[in-house]
Amino acid sequence: MKRKAFTQSQIRYLRDRAEEQYENMQGSRSFRNVSFLLYIALVVLIALTIRSFIAEPIRVDGDSMIPTLVHNEDMLVEKMSYWFSDPLRGDIIICYYPGYTESCVKRVIGLPGETVEVRGGKIFINGNELNESAYWDGQIVGDMDPVVIGARHVFVVGDNRNGSKDSRNASVGAIPYAKVVGRVVAVVYPFDEIQSISRVTYP
Fold it and tell me: Catalytic residue numbers?
């Protein structure tokens, strides 16, 4: 049987339909590309939100928190709890010192209104010796005259008492709540050092 040839009008119709389908396909690909970019932007936004307001991994820099935290360990810092409650004694926090652009990791040992003193190698809170046997068993070098902690401030020290610049230093002093970033809750790297970090309860 002889195949019937297309007429010119049929050819034009088929060409128009093909062009229309091609444009639709182009539009679909563009839509998929835009959707993918929006998805990536949303993921990045969520990640930044979590990092800024909820939790963030931060690397330990230095030896001021030995033996609890070691140089180059990665710790997980939780930021939400201090929205609803104040820092407590025994917390390990991330904070900023006056004039510093980089954060520091220290332990809270003094609270608003309390008097902190260092004498005879020990820390005293309101005249009572602070039992720090959970993380420190040495003697502190140097004394510090009694200091009264102001409202909405905390007194912080490094667990490595003789290798830490902290609130005992006049240039640092007590840290205002506004300079507290969050609470360290775990070591997450190296993997063989993973552990949770709990608030110390003092006897």
Answer: 64, 106
Within 8 A by CB and 6+ apart from 91, the residues are: 107, 108, 183, 199
Q: Are 37 and 79 found together in one domain?
A: no
Cβ contacts of 160 within 8 Å, gap of 6 or more: 63, 64, 65, 66, 67
Residue 44 sits in the same domain as residue 83: no
Q: Are residues 41 and 70 in the same domain?
A: no
pTM value > 0.70:
yes
Helix, strand or coil for residue 61? coil
Q: Which of 55, 72, 101 is the last residue of a domain?
A: 55
The pLDDT tens digits of the residues spanning 26-51 come to 555 555 666 777 777 776 666 666 55
